[in-house]
């Protein structure tokens, strides 16, 4: 008879080995190799289950469809990302860097839901109830239907659910809750998997909406096993810079709505506030036209945002001119400078320092901002201000052509709504024609202003 031996298998990728190792040799994950206690040479038979009529497979055309009913949370920007609100029994994972405001946002969500008469249980595993109470008092998130519990044991959390019978459960965070049925410390893959799967199973059985807070690793991915993202129904990412008050919530996965929506928030001293129209945050407030600026219309998900691009070109005696950028892709700026030199006859750029930045700290990662960057640099070189009424969007190719971008009609409509009557897009043809048109419009406006001054003098 064959001697039974232990087999160790990775819970992430399925790689197996005859002895335990701390790191999987296949997927390079730490702490995912566990003993599955398999005995070699033994085949276990699986008996077929007699299915009832209600569980027998049916043709797909005979299955009735029911739309998921969304219940708004009272925070419009968060509801936009979720597809209209929270669905009963849905498991939602909200991830983000430490200090970005995840707990503040969910505490606000809990207070808004409690204000509608629904009972909310907020389980904090990282702070005490007194700390959460102080934050709630500062942000105005106090309500009798909002219950707090500071627990780190999964069984105790389930006991709190039985005692309170909430309509919404919030757990902050899933990496700090541990189960006695699983070995390892809180936060390890086995513990996260056990805690998340148990909470999600309870949520599905009771039709209880579940909001989980998830930590992120150094590279920005969600900590724990990848299985966690597969178990939940919605994965939201909370983004923001600590040096900037603006915050964005994006849906990376959503079984009940779109995944291209973005919610915009602003951190204030009184908590977190919605920003329904964030375009004003990314444009300068000065009314006097200044050279080296141009407005573009970028897309954040399905939302069009007007963003001002600023450029500064100064002479230098250094052997290697500097290219300093903030909020835009450095490689695209270098390419646009090369295209301006070669295709638009801006020969002086190679010997000058070029600085490019966005207003408000927003980051433009799409190629639709190429044309605005080119116009801003050209305006800075010629020291000619672009008219306030001009907006530009389009991708620039190495041949100097302006290529179309996605959702051009939506961008143009947003620009006109904000008062931009002169739009540079793919219709200008080339970057040289676009720069010439922008400079000509500036000269025409300057001439009109001088004519008005002369008329007023006489």
From TrEMBL:
PROSITE patterns in UniProt: RECA_2
This protein's domain notes: The middle region has homology to RecA with ATPase motifs including the RadA KNRFG motif, while the C-terminus is homologous to Lon protease.
HAMAP family: RadA_bact
Sequence positions that bind ATP: 96-103
Entry function: Plays a role in repairing double-strand DNA breaks, probably involving stabilizing or processing branched DNA or blocked replication forks.
Residues annotated as domain RecA family profile: 67-216
Protein family: Belongs to the RecA family. RadA subfamily.
Chain intervals for the UniProt region annotation (Lon-protease-like): 353-458
NCBIfam families from the UniProt entry: sms
Record-linked Pfam families: AAA_25 (PF13481), ChlI (PF13541), Zn_ribbon_LapB (PF18073)
InterPro entries reported in the protein's UniProt record: AAA+_ATPase, DNA_repair_RadA, P-loop_NTPase, RecA_ATP-bd, Ribosomal_Su5_D2-typ_SF, Ribsml_uS5_D2-typ_fold_subgr, Rubredoxin_2
Keywords: ATP-binding, DNA damage, DNA repair, DNA-binding, Hydrolase, Metal-binding, Nucleotide-binding, Stress response, Zinc, Zinc-finger
Motif RadA KNRFG motif location, chain numbering: 253-257
Protein's recorded name: DNA repair protein RadA
């Amino acid at each position: 008879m064959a001697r039974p031996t232990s087999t160790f298998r990775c819970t992430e990728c399925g790689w197996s080995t005859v002895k335990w190792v701390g790191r999987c040799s296949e997927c390079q994950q730490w702490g995912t190799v566990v003993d599955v206690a398999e005995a070699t040479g033994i085949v276990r038979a699986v008996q077929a289950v007699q299915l009832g009529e209600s569980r027998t497979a049916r043709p797909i055309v005979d299955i009735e469809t029911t739309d998921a009913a969304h219940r708004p949370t009272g925070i419009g920007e968060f509801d936009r990302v979720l597809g209209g609100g929270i669905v009963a029994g849905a498991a939602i994972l909200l991830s983000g860097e430490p200090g970005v405001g995840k707990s503040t946002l969910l505490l606000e969500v809990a207070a808004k839901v409690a204000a509608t008469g629904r009972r909310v249980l907020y389980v904090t595993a990282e702070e005490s109830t007194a700390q959460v109470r102080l934050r709630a008092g500062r942000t105005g998130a106090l309500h009798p239907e909002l219950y707090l519990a500071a627990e780190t044991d999964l069984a105790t959390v389930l006991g709190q659910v039985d005692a309170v019978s909430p309509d919404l459960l919030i757990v902050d965070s899933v990496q700090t809750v541990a189960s006695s049925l699983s070995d390892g410390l809180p936060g390890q893959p086995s513990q996260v998997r056990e805690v998340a799967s148990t909470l999600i199973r309870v949520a599905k059985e009771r039709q209880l909406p579940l909001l989980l807070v998830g930590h992120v690793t150094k590279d920005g991915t969600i900590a724990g096993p990848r299985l966690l993202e597969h178990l939940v129904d919605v994965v939201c990412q909370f983004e923001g810079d600590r040096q900037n008050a603006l915050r964005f919530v994006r849906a990376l996965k959503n079984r009940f709505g779109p995944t291209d929506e973005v919610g915009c928030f602003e951190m204030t001293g009184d908590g977190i506030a919605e920003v329904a129209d964030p375009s004003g945050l990314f444009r300068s407030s000065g009314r006097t036209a200044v050279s080296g600026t141009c407005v573009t219309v970028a897309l954040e998900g399905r939302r069009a945002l007007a963003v001002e691009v600023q450029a500064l070109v100064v002479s230098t005696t250094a052997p290697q001119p500097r290219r300093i950028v903030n909020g835009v892709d450095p490689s695209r700026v270098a390419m646009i400078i090369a295209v301006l030199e070669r295709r638009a006859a801006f020969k002086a750029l190679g010997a000058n320092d070029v600085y490019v930045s966005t207003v408000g700290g927003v980051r433009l990662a799409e190629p639709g901002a190429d044309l605005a960057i080119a116009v801003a640099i050209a305006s800075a070189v010629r020291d000619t201000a672009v008219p306030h009424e001009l907006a530009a969007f389009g991708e620039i190719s190495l041949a100097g052509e302006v290529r179309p971008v996605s959702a051009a009609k939506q961008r143009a409509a947003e620009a006109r709504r904000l008062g931009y009557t002169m739009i540079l897009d793919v219709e200008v043809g080339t970057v040289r024609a676009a720069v010439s048109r922008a400079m000509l419009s500036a000269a025409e406006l300057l001439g009109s202003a001088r004519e008005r001054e002369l008329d007023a003098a006489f």
